[in-house]
Amino acid sequence: MSLQDANPLQEAFAISLPLETNLEPHLRNALQHVLSNEGSMVRPQIIIDLCAAYAFPEDNARQLAIALEYFHTASLIFDDLPCMDDAVERRGAPCVHVEFGEPSAILAALALINRAYALVWRAMSACPAPLQAVAMQYVEEHLGVSGLLNGQSLDLNYSALPHTLETTQRVAMGKTVSLIRLTLVLPAIICGAPPRELQLLDRIAVFWGLSYQIVDDLKDVLQGSGETGKTTSRDLSLDRPNVALLVGVHAALERLDRLLRLGDRALDRLLLQRPATTFLAKLRGTLQQEMRHVTESACAGRSQGGS
Predict the structure, then answer these.
(1) What dotted CATH number matches 128-307?
(2) How high is the pLDDT of residue 294?
(3) Cα 130 to Cα 299: distance, rounded to the nearest angstrom
(4) Cα separation of 138 and 8, whole Å?
(5) What does the alpha-carbon distance between residue 137 and residue 70 come to, in Å, rounded to a whole number?
(6) What is the dihedral of CA 258, 275, 270, 168, to 10 degrees?
(7) What is the Cα 168 distance to its own chain's centre?
(8) What does the pLDDT read at residue 122?
(9) Domain 1-126 is in which class?
(10) Distant-in-sequence, close-in-space partners of 187: CB < 8 Å, separation ≥ 6
């Protein structure tokens, strides 16, 4: 299965959380909305391909892939709530709380998290107990209070923090890099990858995670909701961390280019160790395309500003 052919994963996303017939209607409708509006499914496909590179059982790999996508989707539902980013659109559709109310949105996110943990455990049944322990500790580290939750709290309270690159990167390490690490490193842990390969995958996750965050920051500044499929222009009004707002678009693009080049070095070394991970080069290509797209948006913005 290629990165472009995600239909089986889209189907798995929709059916991996069974909805009982006696489920309360508000919760059922909210979950049906979430399960029928999947994202690009790039992250789950990475996990499938990464597990294949280490000859991990396909069914277990799929369970892990959907679990991590459920974690990610739940984080977006929380992120969009009025008490956080107060967004109205996500993945080209109304946010869950806009369509079904905040209580149903919160319960839907918790349902996804609960199911995700169950799927992670099922996925790990194919690996030795010592690896299971290491993997679950890794999940807790990056989803828990020292990872994603801390990053989200720093983001929400950014107005009281020094508005510096160091603070902005700290937020990104918690909110964005944590999820990228789970996508790239957790599957390799479960598959029993050698320490050197785990180290290289972690470096790639950090550089690509920070790169993704800069791309997202640039989109918030330069693009409208019609282009991104989600509410934009929120960082300035909410006083949230945004590299482009902090150092300017040009400097943000330079920083993005530098991070991508550092990631390229780690990727080149990984390919020498594990040639079956060549699919990651395709993902690197999508990052380059995103960078080119936001660069064009920046140039267009300057042109309009100067006319």
Answers:
(1) 1.10.600.10
(2) 67
(3) 52
(4) 27
(5) 19
(6) 50
(7) 17
(8) 95
(9) mainly alpha
(10) 47, 50, 51, 54, 56, 61, 64
Map residue 27 onto helix, strand or coil. helix
Domain boundaries, the chain: 1-126, 128-307
> Which is nearest to 268 in space by CA: 218, 181, 207, 177?
207
* pLDDT at residue number 225: 56
Spatial separation of the C-alpha atoms in residues 269 and 108, rounded to whole Å: 41
Alpha carbon distance, N-terminus to C-terminus of the chain: 47
pLDDT tens sequence across 10-69: 999 999 999 998 999 999 999 999 999 888 888 999 999 999 999 999 999 999 999 999
Tokens for 218? 């640039």
Q: Helix 7-15 to helix 42-53 angle, to the nearest 10 degrees?
A: 110
Fold: same for 1-126 and 128-307: yes
Place of tokens 């990056």: 142
Residue from 244, 187, 193 nearest 214 by CA: 244
> Can you tell me which residue has the tokens 């990631």?
263
Residue 110 amino acid letter: L
Amino acid 4: pLDDT: 44
Quickly tell me which residue has 């892939």 as its tokens.
Answer: 65
Residues of the chain with pLDDT under 70: 1-6, 224-233, 291, 294-295, 297-307
Residue type, 29: N
Secondary structure element (H or E) that encloses residue 269, with its range: helix 249-273
Please give the pLDDT value at position 288: 74
Rounded to 10 degrees, what is the CA torsion of 207, 47, 42, 177?
-30
Q: Residue 93's beta-bridge partner residues?
A: 90
